[in-house]
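Example record

One chain of 107 residues, shown exactly as stored in the release files.
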Amino acid sequence: MKLRKGDFVQVMKGKDAGKKGRILRVYPQKDKALVEGVNFVKRHTKPGRVDRQGGIIQKEAPIALPGLSYFCLKCNHTTRVGFKFIGENKIRYCKKCGELIESSQGK
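Predicted C-alpha coordinates for this chain:
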Protein backbone atom coordinates (compact mmCIF):
# COMPACT_ATOMS: atom_id res chain seq x y z
CA MET A 1 0.00 0.00 0.00
CA LYS A 2 1.19 3.47 -0.79
CA LEU A 3 -0.50 5.22 2.16
CA ARG A 4 0.27 4.12 5.70
CA LYS A 5 -0.50 5.05 9.29
CA GLY A 6 1.11 8.36 10.21
CA ASP A 7 1.23 9.76 6.65
CA PHE A 8 0.08 13.35 6.11
CA VAL A 9 -2.64 13.36 3.43
CA GLN A 10 -5.04 15.74 1.71
CA VAL A 11 -8.63 14.83 0.83
CA MET A 12 -9.19 15.24 -2.91
CA LYS A 13 -12.85 14.21 -3.31
CA GLY A 14 -16.12 14.60 -1.42
CA LYS A 15 -17.51 17.08 1.08
CA ASP A 16 -14.16 17.43 2.88
CA ALA A 17 -12.09 18.13 -0.26
CA GLY A 18 -9.04 20.25 0.53
CA LYS A 19 -8.77 19.27 4.20
CA LYS A 20 -5.48 17.84 5.47
CA GLY A 21 -4.63 15.48 8.32
CA ARG A 22 -2.67 12.48 9.52
CA ILE A 23 -3.82 8.92 8.96
CA LEU A 24 -4.76 7.37 12.30
CA ARG A 25 -5.65 3.90 11.03
CA VAL A 26 -5.82 2.05 7.68
CA TYR A 27 -8.40 -0.61 6.78
CA PRO A 28 -6.87 -2.40 3.74
CA GLN A 29 -9.72 -4.91 3.32
CA LYS A 30 -12.28 -2.11 3.06
CA ASP A 31 -9.90 0.20 1.10
CA LYS A 32 -10.47 3.00 3.66
CA ALA A 33 -8.51 5.07 6.15
CA LEU A 34 -9.32 7.05 9.28
CA VAL A 35 -7.95 10.59 8.94
CA GLU A 36 -7.56 12.94 11.91
CA GLY A 37 -10.00 15.87 11.79
CA VAL A 38 -11.75 14.80 8.57
CA ASN A 39 -15.17 13.26 7.79
CA PHE A 40 -16.99 13.80 11.08
CA VAL A 41 -20.27 11.97 11.65
CA LYS A 42 -22.76 12.20 14.51
CA ARG A 43 -23.61 9.02 16.39
CA HIS A 44 -26.68 8.80 18.62
CA THR A 45 -25.88 6.64 21.64
CA LYS A 46 -27.98 5.23 24.45
CA PRO A 47 -26.81 5.36 28.07
CA GLY A 48 -24.79 2.27 28.97
CA ARG A 49 -22.63 0.90 31.74
CA VAL A 50 -19.49 2.63 30.55
CA ASP A 51 -21.10 5.90 29.45
CA ARG A 52 -23.75 6.81 32.02
CA GLN A 53 -25.05 9.63 29.83
CA GLY A 54 -26.29 9.05 26.29
CA GLY A 55 -26.47 11.69 23.61
CA ILE A 56 -25.03 12.70 20.29
CA ILE A 57 -21.31 11.94 19.87
CA GLN A 58 -19.28 13.43 17.03
CA LYS A 59 -16.45 11.22 15.73
CA GLU A 60 -14.36 10.60 12.63
CA ALA A 61 -15.49 8.01 10.10
CA PRO A 62 -13.26 6.16 7.60
CA ILE A 63 -12.79 7.74 4.17
CA ALA A 64 -12.03 5.95 0.88
CA LEU A 65 -8.31 5.64 0.01
CA PRO A 66 -8.73 6.63 -3.68
CA GLY A 67 -10.02 10.01 -2.48
CA LEU A 68 -6.81 10.70 -0.54
CA SER A 69 -3.48 11.97 -1.82
CA TYR A 70 -0.12 12.03 -0.03
CA PHE A 71 0.89 15.58 0.99
CA CYS A 72 4.66 16.13 0.94
CA LEU A 73 5.67 18.57 3.68
CA LYS A 74 8.99 19.39 1.98
CA CYS A 75 7.62 20.51 -1.40
CA ASN A 76 4.25 21.58 0.13
CA HIS A 77 2.17 19.84 -2.57
CA THR A 78 0.13 16.71 -3.03
CA THR A 79 2.14 14.11 -4.86
CA ARG A 80 2.26 10.50 -5.89
CA VAL A 81 4.29 7.97 -3.95
CA GLY A 82 6.95 5.85 -5.63
CA PHE A 83 9.11 2.96 -4.46
CA LYS A 84 12.90 2.57 -4.61
CA PHE A 85 15.09 -0.34 -3.62
CA ILE A 86 18.03 0.77 -1.49
CA GLY A 87 20.02 -2.37 -0.83
CA GLU A 88 17.55 -4.97 0.40
CA ASN A 89 14.98 -2.39 1.58
CA LYS A 90 11.98 -1.12 -0.37
CA ILE A 91 11.59 2.59 0.45
CA ARG A 92 8.80 5.03 -0.44
CA TYR A 93 9.62 8.47 -1.90
CA CYS A 94 7.90 11.65 -3.13
CA LYS A 95 7.78 11.66 -6.93
CA LYS A 96 7.93 15.49 -7.16
CA CYS A 97 10.94 16.31 -4.99
CA GLY A 98 12.50 12.87 -4.45
CA GLU A 99 12.35 13.11 -0.63
CA LEU A 100 12.36 9.73 1.13
CA ILE A 101 9.25 9.04 3.19
CA GLU A 102 10.05 7.81 6.68
CA SER A 103 7.99 4.82 7.69
CA SER A 104 6.25 5.38 11.03
CA GLN A 105 5.77 1.63 11.56
CA GLY A 106 9.46 0.77 11.41
CA LYS A 107 9.17 -1.87 8.65
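Notes: The first strand starts at residue 8 and ends at 11.
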